Amino acid sequence: MIDRNATIDGMQVSIHADETVLEAATRVGVTIPTLCKGRDLSPEGGCRLCLVEVEGTSRPQAACHTKLADGMVIRTATDRIESLRRDILDLTLSAHPDQTFDASSPQTEFEELLAQYDLHRSSYPDRAMPATLDQTHPYLRYDPSRCILCRRCIDACESIQGQFVFSIESRGIQSSLCYGDDDSFLDSGCVACGACVDRCPTAAITDIDRIARVKSDRVTRTTCGYCGVGCQIDVRSRDGRITEIGGAKDAVVNRGHLCAKGRYAHAYQSADDRLTQPLLRNGEHLEPVSWDEAIDWVSTRILSIGKRWGPDALGVFTSSRSTNEAAYLLQKMFRGIIGTNNIDCCARVCHSSTALALRTVTGTGAASASYEDIELAKCIVIAGANPTEAHPVVGSRIKQAVLDGAKLIVIDPRRIELAEYATCFLPLRPGTNVALFNAMAKLLIESGQVDVRYLEERVDGWSELEKFVEGLSLEQSAQTCGVAPDRIADAAQILGEVGPALFVHGLGLSELTQGTESVMTLCNLGMLTGSIGKPGAGMLPLRGQNNVQGNADMGAMPNLVTGYQSVQDSGVRERVGSIWNATIPTRPGKTIPEMIDAAAAGEIRGLWIQGEDVAQSDPNETHVRSALNNLELLVVQELFLSETAQYADLVLPAAGALEQDGTFTNGERRIQRVRAAVEPPGQARPDWEVARNVACALGAHWTYSCADDVMTEIAAVAPAIFGGVAFDRLGDDGLQWPCPDRTHPGTRRVHESEFIRGRGQLICVEHIASPEHSVDGFPYLLITGRVLEHYNVGTMTRRTPNRTLRAEDTLEIHVRDAAREGIVDGSRVDIESQWGSTNVVAQVSQRVQPGHVFLSFHFPETHTNRLTGPQRDAKSNCPEYKVTAVRLRTPETQSPPA
Amino acid sequence: MIIVPYVTGYLSEHYADDDFRTLSAYKAKGGFEGLKKALAMEPEEVVEIMKSAGLRGRGGAGFNAGMKWSFMPKDTDRPKVLVCNGDESEPGSFKDRLIMERGPLQILEGILIAAWAVGASKAFIYIRGEYKEPIRCLEAAVKELYGARLCGENVMGKKGFNIDIVVHSGAGAYICGEETGLLESLEGKKGQPRKKPPFPAQFGAFGLPTTVNNIETFAHAPYILDRGVDWFRGFGTEKSPGTTLYGVSGHVERPGLFELPLGTPLREVIGHAGGVRGGRRLKGVIPGGMSMPILTPNDIDVPMADEFLSERGTHLGTGGVMVMDETTCMVRVACVVSYFFRDESCGQCTQCREGTGWINKICERIEQGRGTQQDMKLLEDVPAMMEGQTICAFADAAAWPIQGLMRHFRDDFEAHIREHKCPYPESFEL
């Protein structure tokens, strides 16, 4: 091969394919100024600051969009070029009022350039007048006086977030940045990801929390405490208070990108109503006590209940928002010291069906793929998930992948944002996934569009499935799902032709009476197309909370101890028991819904609930509240006096995600470090510490002095998947399990050469309607779920300015149904199911199909879960949040406005 | 409608005849003979003939059309596109309008020849939205071609020669005449020039290999193919063969279009328009549309071809000759010119966006008698920093006329500053 190179400022530079002069110069350490080329963005080309001299051409060339070619001789800083740059900066400055920019104490990229070129004042006379600030948005501000029209924000919004908020109005000297047709930042389609802010070179678009320019004295790299994407964040703080949060630029998971929650919604951390000391019930009141007193009291109560009613009268819900270390220690305490397997976590009420299904058919109850498969995918199937709202950073990556040409099939009752980008959108009737996936399997098999080799080599049950689908009728399935047969055929054809595919799925599959079957039949499609274990393909369930994956991993499950080891396996009990120096009970414990039922029935007398607001989040709210009321002992570890905490006998103030050390595990099995950025307020303590202290009070001799010690033990207890995990190996991007030993690099893709369980299993199962599907007198099907601005029960986000962005839950109802019911947008409506009723504000919409309504559950006053009922998936015990028969009533007193 | 006095040439020979716009009459005058001959050849031969004919693009830049055709990739499966630029947005230019209205089939035959030569299967004729009549004429002509199976599938019975032609109405911006600005506009986007490379031959309309030529350029092609290179080179100069339609406007007796060989002396061109109005003295001539630097009476005998005009610091451009007599205030000219470019800059590049704004502001200030020596310096500095440094040539087009006016008529500017008023009370009104 001939050595090809060019020269930049006298340096020999090798030629890399498709590299621009600017990139090559940066690579060899030559800085060329630019204002319009932002990080991770394609060059805009308009600022013209990066002009360089190229020998043999009379005109200077723009380094940002000129490719470095063999033999080029480039000079980046000749007198002519430098004077040109100064002229351009002067011209740029000439469009702004005096004193807009301060070159004497530069704060922005632009001001630094002004300082570098010693430009303190424009040489042009008669300058512009200051323009009006846009301060409508709670987090973002736009100052037109500072905008130099570099267009980085436009590109960032388009090519990172995919929101297309900005454009340029008018042309030439009259050009100005605008929000499309919208008048203000608040009204625009902005989703507050902050990608534009991070790239704006003049702070024309800026974060309100950054304007004060409080100098931070500390930066802490940690993992975001919101959804299960697991974005890496840099938390800046000063004097123990958080000043701002930014995305970690080099992070594998999010590459610097964040969402409206992760980046901005941190005010809850310093909210006035944070719990700062233990509170013990005294009659009607909760009164402050010392930690010693609290621990003494609770250990005595636990011992006495255990002694009187047996250990199975006690139970624990670990917190999916807390660390792996906290979950591990709590399950260890309940199993090893108290002696019960009544241990569960909120995965039960979200992805338990997913985990069970994946475990059954593949051998592991977690994602087979990684987020990086999104960019590698040629075909993405989204089923029962709304990533742009619930997992925004992953949502934007999917959107970009589709904009880059990947095919997208969206399967969801609602016209979610990504449905607008879909090659094929299947708006099915809630709870009919099995029928749809079976129909697609039938079409794939009958058209021969299956991966024969993959099926023969790696999968069981093919001939059974062939026979099973033979007996299915496409027409009938289509009727069940409410989707035209042609559309199903379109989707199957895309899948068959473009697959292997990446299956991104969520609670719309798992929170159903046929939740487990929904995911299993989706896995059928994954196996028929030869997708599971392949690059750019596989199963990628999106986990809801920051550490819901980790909680299940740690053994916060009634039948599985740490690392998915069965409590019914005597070998496991023996081996783990010997490490714990304890006896692990044999009989699997109860799940969360079973424990609630048992509490209501008086069989469970004491519950420890760590960071979970079951009174708001669990289905059939009336029943849950009566169960809580019935307990002899309720211990709650919380940040705030939640709906659940109000029933507690003892409330223990907890440290939040930004205040403790440990690890979270994200939805792609990535164990990442959590580092305390600030101290917890008052006497609030990390959850793992509290578990250790109570265990010691119960008679254990636990000597963990830090979260690191706990992880060392986790690795020993579950060597097959965590054996190689240790804090010193987690670094910035953590490790993806399985990671069996210290030399193992972690696992990007599971089932790559073979399924963990040996061979994959195809499942033949028919659609069975939910009891909620046809309830006389309740004509609508209610779907519950989340919106972008809030997180789960809203405990955190309701205490931030996200409340300005969205102040209440609203009931989405189709415009045709609204007309029939006499409901107008914004009016209040009574909604009633067999299980309860509530009163909400209606939002007339075309996002839902006729016959369906949607309600989020972020605000306690909405009482969404009074409506949801007792239906559960029989296998996983996961409640059916996604299908409830309801009826609507408009109060007669309220007539629609004329 | 101006009916051109046929002077000497071939393009406008039958423009007085309304029927020339119909297929039968066009064919009767020898129409489609060029295409017939082209189809008897290999595409490469057609490109070679065009290259050797030396037909220079008539849109302003004057690039060899055959050479441009040869840039189209040969070994590609991607569909190829031809775009005919009928935006004619350069002030002082109106020749394309006449060709579209009087000789639409000349353009279409040229497009078909080019399509055969470069292997294009789709052609867009992008016409400025204000040109209602030209759009109507071309739409009618295209319809007639489809009816006669002269476009669509297997054109003229040639199996596999498929070409669809679409007439597209622009939405009005000078920058849509710039070829990549036009492509953006054609795609339905805001008309903003693209960064180059990639050039349209690699990544043009809708990302496909594309050749963009001007209306008049296409219209010459049938004659070259039909009558031969030698015949074509019998008109014009060695470096600029053929005729063109000079559009003479301004202070002349009979403004209009005159088809003359390239290289015809300026004096003769103006002579065809009846000379300077009212026997007044000539003050300046813009030779090729408003973006070209001005000439003075000393240049009156310059041959009107680019190789001679560029020696005098200007270009033939679109051949739009704007004549100004002795009453003309050159600062007012600068105001008109700079207002236009200020208004039409797309705004992507700093120098162009801010520079056009400042030039106009300063010119108006000088015209109003409020100018200073600092303004004179800015009028020298700002155009200098605009020229040759931006994404497209618009900034050059905005800078050159000002530089020309400052070079040749500095006294006019100085007089305004000295007298704090405009010394040309009889000049045209702003």
How does this model look, in words?
The complex is a heterodimer of chains A (898) and B (430). By secondary structure, chain A is of the alpha/beta class. Chain A folds into five domains: 112 residues, Ubiquitin-like (UB roll); 131 residues, N-terminal domain of TfIIb, CATH 2.20.25.90; 245 residues, 3-Layer(aba) Sandwich (Rossmann fold), CATH 3.40.50.740; 190 residues, Dimethylsulfoxide Reductase, domain 2; 119 residues, Barwin-like endoglucanases (Beta Barrel). In chain A, strands 14-13-27-26-25-15-16 form a seven-stranded mixed sheet, with helices on both faces. Chain A has a six-stranded mixed β-barrel with strand order 32-36-33-35-34-37. A five-stranded mixed sheet of chain A has the order 2-1-5-3-4, covered by helices on one side. In chain A, helix 8 crosses helix 26, helix 9 runs parallel beside helix 26 and helix 9 crosses helix 27. Chain B has 430 residues and is an alpha/beta fold. Chain B has three domains: 216 residues, Rossmann fold, CATH 3.40.50.11540; 83 residues, Ubiquitin-like (UB roll); 90 residues, Up-down Bundle (de novo design (two linked rop proteins)). Chain B has a four-stranded parallel sheet, sandwiched between helices. Chain B has a four-stranded mixed sheet with strand order 6-5-8-7, covered by helices on one side. In chain B, helix 7 links the parallel strand 2 and strand 3. In chain B, helix 3 crosses helix 6, helix 5 packs across helix 6 and helix 6 packs across helix 9. The longest helix of chain B is centred in the last third of the chain and has 18 residues. Chain B is globular and about 75 Å long. The two termini of chain B are 27 Å apart. The mean pLDDT of chain B is 95. The chains are: A alpha/beta (898), B alpha/beta (430).
